[in-house]
């Protein structure tokens, strides 16, 4: 797989990690993380970017929040912290090698999934304002480790405008409205 300095909507896939109803109340700034994930998934939908969700041990932790589940074209149930061990790579569209990761927990499932995707040659970006952990320190250390490992750290707004490329994009006004929420 390749890497690029630029994120391109034509080769991106959005991966939403473990935004589960029973987990989110325990996440530091969880409501903000969840809102950012929902907003970004809506933008991905407008730009026809595939969105895949994961659920960690759904029998124990429950399903993803309804708004997340409805925005995902596929949801993978997993027991491993690294979603690739439970089939994530097999469901990624073949022509989409830029993986944009959001979700929880940053220092466990999100980090382990991101590291494996990078090991497999995928170009990985982590949306910093769309990830969370129970403790802020765990989130920060995970982000530091991911950046050192080669993941691109970005914000949700940065991603939206990079996906759009231009104010002439046919869905610019709709995306702008979501960004301003």
Main attributes?
20% strand, alpha/beta, 8 helices
Structure description:
The structure is a single chain. This protein has 181 residues and is an alpha/beta fold. Helix content is 42%, strand content 20%. It is built from eight helices and six strands. The model has no long low-confidence stretch (mean pLDDT 96).
Q: How would you summarize the topology of this molecule?
A:
Layout: E1 12-17, H1 30-46, E2 51-56, H2 58-61, H3 66-71, E3 74-78, H4 88-91, E4 98-104, H5 106-119, E5 123-132, H6 136-149, E6 152-154, H7 156-164, H8 172-179
Parallel strand pairs: 1-2, 1-4, 2-3, 4-5, 5-6
Helix pairs in contact: 1-8, 5-6
Compose a concise summary of this entry.
With 181 residues, this protein is α/β, with parallel strands linked by helices.
